[in-house]
Amino acid sequence: MDSLDGRRGVTEMIIVDRALREREETGRPIRVGLVGAGFMGAGIARQIIRYTPGMELVCVANRDVEKAERAYEKAGRDTVFNVESEAQLQQAMDRGAGAVSSDPSIMCRSENVDAIIEATGTIDFAAGIVLEALKNRKHVVSLNAELDGTLGPVLSHLAREAGVVYTGSDGDQPGVTMNLYRFVRGIGAAPIVCGNIKGFHDPHRTPKTQEEFARKWGQKAHMVTSFADGTKVSFEQAVIANATGMRVDVRGMHGPAVAPGTPIDQAMNELPLAKIAENGPIVDYIVGPSPAPGVFVVATYEDPVQERFLELYKLGKGPFYCFYRPYHLCHFEVPSSVVRAVDFQDATLAPLGGSLVDVVAAAKRDLSEGEILDPLGHFMTYGLCENTEIVENEGLLRIGLAEGGRMVRNVKKDEVLTASDVELPANRVADRLLEQQRGLFSN
Known about the structure:
CATH topology of the largest domain: Rossmann fold
CATH class of the largest domain: Alpha Beta
Shape: globular
Strand order of the largest sheet: 3-4-2-1-5-6-7
CATH superfamily of the largest domain: NAD(P)-binding Rossmann-like Domain
């Protein structure tokens, strides 16, 4: 199905509840494996087990198996088996029990698992999991914008070859944006901006500065840091760009800040909308507007009659119309993407083809020759969106592949790193996939 058909997308969002109810009534649940039992993974487990009829969480894989067990326990499942083989997983399924494992490949190979949810937040490790799932013809729902923004095009290509769906998720900001984009296109409007509403942005934030906030919400400090320093929004908007054919107007996006609480339909005017309408649609973000958190789409309409109706329906006089959703409910909405993939072969969002926007690494502080780059959301780098053509022409370093790289020269604070500035680790799955991606979409 065409992921850009707005009418079809809206229809399927409405009928997933019927599909789940029918599966529940006929005893044919969608059987799901979950990789990652952290903050988001535990929420997904609870949502499926307690609130999603017609869907069964058959296994949770996590390097720390005790965390996977706790995810089941907090969701109210008492009988859980630690499995080390496909046969043991099948035994647990036959008993109607949950299963945990430190080896995600077990659920990827199981004949009776329909879909895999990837929620680790890693890149190289996650890439290996997704490859194993696709090889075994499993649908994959990703809550991993970092992976999707780095290797989404090649993984989507491999999924199509396998006859399955690789998709981002409802509830995550890219998925919410894509649903809104499809709706806007479906009513005949022309989107010119897909935007993200942020409450705060400081590229030099670190796990130390975000420690207290992370502790308050039970999250990891580096995850919260990636939100604050702009890396996360860069990946989210790169994913949207690649799914819609949009670009960025400037490196790092415009990202204007407005007075806190400024209505988004006013704040959108801080973007150069007339220029964007002339030069082509973009992804971007605005700091401070209300409602937050949320997403928005700015669109134009070429039909004066319809414009008159939009004014009647309180969207203003144009020429720029703001559509927005004032929330994204993360793990609450993940099951919808599972159903859309398994029962309707519909991706919530997937790249149109090759990468159009990538996320490159900038130095969070002065970096010295010999230093080893730390992971996303830590102390050394932050991410910036850049058009892929420029990334390739200037040899810029994608931040999704930067971790573990050894600096071979000094780089000043806020300078964008190039691939020649670092020596990357050898034999990584992600690097091989990137080369495959370049080869597939070089034209």
